[in-house]
Structure formats: structure tokens, C-alpha cells
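Q&A log
Question type: sequence-to-structure
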Amino acid sequence: MIGTFFTRANQNRLTLTLPMQLKILKIFPKKSYYSLLIFLLIFIFSVFAELIANDKPLIVRYKDNFYFPIFKSYPEITFNGEFETEADYHDPYIKNTIKTNGWLIFPLIPFSYNTINYNITSPAPSKPSKENWLGTDDNGRDVLTRIIYGIRISLIFGLVLTIISSIIGILLGAIQGYFGGLLDLFFQRFMEIWSGLPILFLLIILSSIIEPSFWILLCIMLLFSWMSLVGMVRAEFLKLRNYDFVRAAKSLGASDKRIIFTHILPNALTSSLASLPFLLIHSILTLVSLDFLGLGLSIDSPSLGEILAQGKNNITAYWLGFSGFFIITLISTLLVFIGEGLRDILDIRKS
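Response status: OK
Response body:
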């Protein structure tokens, strides 16, 4: 009898066999599937931002020698210049010297996120043009380039925060739900107090005291974001720890660690996995909010929130606010569709 329960517990674990994979593809909604593809393309596109938008050439051939400025800095004297400082490849003299003795290939967008375009014909912020497809901001920097780099920072920040906070939340929820008793009671009271704190105001205060950076903001937000999955995982463990297959595993001498991670956790992760895209949205929007308020990343860092702030400060420059709003809405919508698809796949009632 005990062996039968233990065998059923192993059968109930989530294993992606070929029939299950085909079933997942069948259940996964088309809008979620295409949303996932578009999201992955945006993410990959932003990861290789230096190859798409950069003020340095991808390849330079000068006097039968090849140079790769995006990977290594070269002084002007390398290209018959006068100074030992890094070469400015938009300088007419350097550019003509290279073209006379070879050639150079610029990325699709010949601007980096901090490159100021001194050739704009109207005061900054300037309207969209052939040179600046989405115009420039109030400092003369290309908006499209800053959006590409800003997407990368936002997505990486959100992914890292979501992964780390999910691991912490799932582990704490599993421990509370499995052991229960005074341990569960203590953690519940602590979470009630901790969650009652004004999180946004604390983030604003800490960001004002400490000089903001990527890792400092990540650590500050980790103090509060880990609570998202604790209650969900705890409830699943409280329910599953009384099932017969858990009792059978205990009777056979399985350790608590083995029962938690091998038998209960795979069955308790379905609702948690479906909520990960929504946690990612929350992480991204929190960073955007802090940057919009000027309490996030440094001013020079490319940020979607900083673009929205410039749109607020320059009402007539419609391209600033519209560009930032459109990309944030697009990413949020894609993640919502992905989350709905995961929810449909992991819904036991549809299996």
C-alpha cells in the first residue's frame, strides 16, 4: 500500500514527456505563443545593442589592417591623427583619412546612448528625421538608441530581480507550509509587519540617501519583492503535506529535504510559474517609476523612466512621451499574454 502511494507520487511529478510537450503546444494560445516570440526578439535585440546602435564602427580597414573599435579603443595616431586620445570616428578628418586608405562600417544606428548629435538643424529636443528616427531628447541624444539600451537595462533588472526574489519567496513559503507551527506563525506575523511598511516611500528615502546604481537598487528592491510568492507556495504546502504520498514518503524514511524538493515542490510550483511574468512586469514598472521620479539610475544611464520624465518636462516634444509610453505598454502587454498562456498550460482542469 505504501509502495503504491510512493509510486503515484513519483508519477505525479512534472516531467515533460513527448506527448506532454505536444499537448502543451496544443493548449498554448496563439497570442501567447506569438507574444513570447516577440518578447524574445526584443530581448535579444536589446542584448546586442552595441552592434545595432553605436557611435563607433563595427569594422575598420585602414592600410590593409583590420580594426574593431566596438571591442577595443584606438588612439587617433593609429589613423594618422595628432592626439593619443581615443579616435572620434565622426570627426571629418579621421573619417576621410580612413576612407582614403580603406573603409569603415557603422552600425545601423550610428549613435550610442550618450552620443550628442551636434548636427541637428533645430533646437533640442528635435523632431524625428532620417538621421534620428524618433528624434532627440533635450540633450541632443538619439531617442531610439536610448530606448534600445533602456529596454536592455529594464529587462535584465526585472529578470534578475524576479528570479532571485522568486527563489527566496518559494523557499520561505515551502519552509512555512511544510513545518508549520511556531515557525509558520512567526514568519506570518513578520510578513504582516513588513508588508505594512510604505514600500514606495522607503524606496524613495533609501534612493535619496544612497547613490543609486543597478546593484544597489536591486538589493533595495529585494528587501520587499520576495514576499510575492510566499503566501501562494505556503498554501500549496499546507495542503499537500497531508496527502497520502507525503505520508508514504515519510514512512519509507525520506528526509524532510527530499520530501520538500522532490515530492511536494514540483506539485506546488504550477501557480507560482504562471505568476512569474506578472512579477516581471511589476519589477520593470518599479524601476521605471523610480527613474521617472529621478530616484533610480543615474541621469546618464539610458532609462525608459527617464524618457517619460523628459516627455513630461517637454510637452511639445510628443515623440518623447509617446515613444516611452508605447514601448512600456508593448512589453507589459506581451508579458500579460505570456502569463495567461502559462496559466492555461498549468491549469489542471484543462489537462
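Response note: The first helix runs from residue 2 to 12.
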